[in-house]
Amino acid sequence: MPTGEKDKTAKISGNLSLFTDHDIYLFKEGNHFTLYDKLGSHLVLKNGENGVNFAVWAPNAKNVSVIGDFNGWNQKSHPLKLRRDQSGIWESFVPGITKGTIYKYHIDSRYNNYRVDKADPFAFYSELSPRTASRVWDLDYEWDDGEWMKNRHKFNALPAPFSIYEVHIGSWKRVHEEGDRFLSYREMARSLTDYVKEMGFTHVELLPIMEHPFYGSWGYQTTGYFAPTSRYGTPQDFMYLVEYLHQNGIGIILDWVPSHFPSDEHGLAYFDGSYLYEHADPKKGFHPEWKSSIFNYSRNEVRAFLISNALFWLEKYHIDGIRVDAVASMLYLDYARKEGEWIPNKYGGKEDLDAIEFIKKLNKAAYTTYHDVQVIAEESTSWPMVSRPTHIGGLGFGMKWNMGWMHDILEYMSKDPLYRKYHHNKLTFSIWYAFSENFTLPLSHDEVVHGKGSLIGKMPGDEWQRFANLRLLFGLLYGHPGKKLLFMGGEFAQWKEWNHDESLEWFVLQYPSHQGMQKWIRNLNHLYRAEPALHELDFSNDGFEWIDFSDYEQSIISFIRKAKDASDFLIFVFNFTSVPRYDYRIGISKEGLYRELLNSDNKEYWGSNFSNDDVVYSEQIPFRERPYSLKLKLPPLGVVILKPMMKNDTQHN
Q1: CB 3.0 to 4.6 Å from 482: which of 338, 441, 635, 653, for a disulfide?
Q2: Known catalytic residue: 325?
Q3: Of 278, 325, 491, 596, which residue is the catalytic one?
C-alpha cells in the first residue's frame, strides 16, 4: 500500500538492466503486475551517471531505437538491445537525458519492411495533443492523504453510502474569460471538491483521463494507458486533485478501458509490425461498433500489461476504484457482430473464454493487493454473478451497473402520466432481480448524448411538470436499493444535451426551478448518507419491503427501506400522476408517530408545497393485511419520505 513517501531514483550497475530473471519469468507467464516499474522510461543513476533506462516490448522488431529532441530524432544514434531471454524486450541506458525529454521508439519490423515511430506504451506523461510523443517523467510526490488512506476501507465498503458524481473534466466548468479554456487538474481540485462536498456526494467518477488523441472520444479511445492526459496538467497536478479530494473526505473512481484501443499509428495498434496487443483476425480483433482494436486476452504479456495498468492507478495515484468500461463487449465474441462475423470458442459458444479468465485474474489481483478499493463493471447483459467472488464462479467485480433499471425507469418516466398505469411493470420489475448483483444505479453520461437529450428534456409535460417529474425520478434513484450515480449537470436540470466542447449550463442556476432541483439533490444526498436504512443493506432483500406495488390504476407505489437494525426504517410513497391525493392510505405494521423527512413538492424545490403535517399519526385501522395504517397527502408527481419518531421501538415493520 502506498505510504506517501516519494519515489526514489533507481540505482543500477553492471549490465544496467532493471529486469531480474524473475521479472522475465513473471512477464512471460502473464503474472507480472508491476511492469510499470520495469518497462518504459525510468530516470536512473548508473555507475554514477544520471540518465534514462528505456525498455519496450517489441518481439517482432528487427531493430529498435529511441529517438527524440535529445538526438534530433536520429533513428541510428541510440539503438536499443534485444534481450537474449526470448522475452522480446529491447532496452538500453542513455546517459544525460533528463526529466521532460520528448521521445518515441523507432521500430524497424521483421515483416513487410514496416517502419514506424511509436509512443511509449508505458510512458508516465505525454506531449500535449495533437502531438503524440512521450515525455520522460517521474512520479515523485509527497502525499498528504494518509488519514483517508488509513480509513478508506470504511468509505469503500459495500454497506457504506456510495453517491457518485460522474464528471468529464474538460466540460464540467470552463474559463469563458480566457477563450473557454479547460480548468487544470489543480484548478479542478478546489472548485470540484468544494462543490461535491457541498452537494453531499461521496465519490467522484472521472471519465477516462488516460491519454487519448481524439478529445471527442471523451477518453474512451486510449493510447497512453499509464499517462494522465496532459491537456489538464502534469501527473503531479493530477495527484494533487486526488489528494485534495481525499483530504475533504471524497473518494475518486476512474473509468478504465481494457476492452479496446484506437488504431492511431503512434499507439498500440500493429505495434512492432505484427498484431502484438490485438488479435490478428478482424473477426476477433476489430470492433465494428467503435472502429477500434480488441486486446488479445489469450496472450500472457497482454494480460500482464492490462492488469499492471489497473494496479498502477491504484498504487501510484491512490485511486479508490476502477469502473471497467464495456465489459459485455469483452464477454461475448458476437458482440455488435452479425452472423458469420465472429469466431465461436472451442466449445462452439459465443463466450470469450480468454476474456473471462482475464477479468477474473484482474479482479483477484486488484482485491488481493488492495482490499479497500472497488472494481465496478459496466455490464449491460444478464450474465450471471458478475459481482460475485471468483471462487464461487463469479467474475469477481465488487459492483455492477444496473442498466436494466436505468432503461426501464427512463422509458417509464418519459410516458405521459395519464398512460403510466399501462406501463406499471417498468416501474416495479427491477425489484425482482435487485439483489442478484451488487448494483449501482446509473444515470450516466451515456443517457444525455447522441441525440438523447438531457434528463429534464426526457420528462413529459409543461415546465413545472418536467421539473416535478425529474425530482420524482431522483427520489426513486435514492430510494431504490443500490448505490447511486449521477452525471454532472443532471443535479441542477441542465436543459441542453451534454456537449464535451462546452461548459455545463451553470447560468441556469439563476432561476428558482434549477436552484430547487440542485437543493433537492443536495438534501437527498445528505439524507442518504445520514440514514443507515438507505445504504447498509443495499444488496440484501432484508433491506427492502414492499408496502404496495399493485396500485397501477393510480400509478402509486410504496415501500420500506430498512437498516441492519430493522426497527430503523424509512417509508417511501411515490405518486407518478399529476393528480394530488388527499387521503391516500397505506398499511403499516408499527404504531406511532411518523415525521415527513422530505417531500419533493416542497416550495424550496420549486414545488406546489402540497405536503403533510410535520407529524403523521398512525391509525388502528387495518389495511392491506397490516394492523395499522397512515392517511397521507400525496403531492402531484411527487415522493414523500417518512420516518418513525420512536427510534427505540424494536418492533419490526
Answers
A1: 441
A2: yes
A3: 325
